[in-house]
Amino acid sequence: MEPQRMPGTARVISVRQNDLTARARAAADVANVNAAVVDADARFPGEAFAEIRRQRLLGIQVPPALGGEGASIAEIADVCYILGHACSSTALIYAMHQIKMACITRHSKGNAVLERILGRIAAEQLLMASSTTEGQAGGNVRSSEAAVEHDGAQVTLERKATVISYAVEADGVVTTARRAADAAGSDQVLLVLLKADYTLERLQVWDTLGMRGTHSEGFTLRARAAAEQIMPEPYERIHAQTMVPFAHLLWGSVWAGIAAAAAGKAQAFIRHAVRGSNGQMPPGAPHFTQAVSSLRTLRGVLAASLRSYEGIMSDEKAISSLEFQAMITLTKVQVSELAVTTVLRILTNLAATSLMTPLPTSISG
Fold first, then answer.
1. Residues 148-172: pLDDT tens digits?
2. Residue 3 and which of 19, 152, 156, 351 are 20 to 30 A apart at CA?
3. Beta carbons within 8 Å of 146's beta carbon, 6+ residues apart
4. Annotated domain spans of the chain
5. pTM of the model
């Protein structure tokens, strides 16, 4: 099963879409070669991101007026899927970067400082990391402990981040914080930082099975930046309108790519087994059929959710509705469960088939 474009909205495939697909596949080829060693050695997929930069894929979401390509979420989901087919760590890092890019591009509201940063990201192919969890809040991204403090035309921030993926390798960090020292934990802002604006002090490491190359570790983040680097809209709005939908849809596209890659390897193994047994289907073949079915369902769920979101992206009321928020959350649950189901059925297929034919490959990476 070769990596194919994620099904999104019904649309004519443009020259740009074909170009993005070709560029994504070039990056995926490099990522695939290094995927096993990236996970085994728990190292950042540097070769893959060197190619991603060569293909100029980091700034595709930046508006054309600022030097980017104005790529849609469906186009970005396609890239995530193709990269997920090659290397889980590479794809997850790329998705996290694009989630932050969506927050900046959709909510900068003409802020000149933020637009200059967007221009630099497109021109220099900068990689942006995310910091949204800290301290006792754990995984509650809608509550911050550390607050920004104003110092003239600048702001300062010190936060103990539970995890920042690829923090050391990133060229910048987009972080949540309390609006002020006397603000509630849920009264948050989003601060866009470039490497010169902050320092990192490692607090802890985290051995993330299957995505060790994301380098997801804990850090104390100390920052000083221009006050204009605070996003003009409250994080509450950014979270509901952009952060959550982009995260669920792009991560879902990565998971779909990972599951599809596993299915492709299983298919190749079944063909190998059939050739070695005079055309007899291996005992695990029915499990593979079930895996393909769950994979198709997964991709269908993603396609429907992408269409729904694209149809209301400019409608703040519709995006904030309970109906949409419940749907996009359910998408995350369904897609993650279907991805796991797909891979487990493939493992069952391989386990049963390997009783009669040695395994020639691994589905890890």
1. 999 999 999 999 999 999 999 999 9
2. 351
3. 134, 135, 157, 158, 159, 160, 177, 178
4. 15-124, 128-229, 235-353
5. 0.91
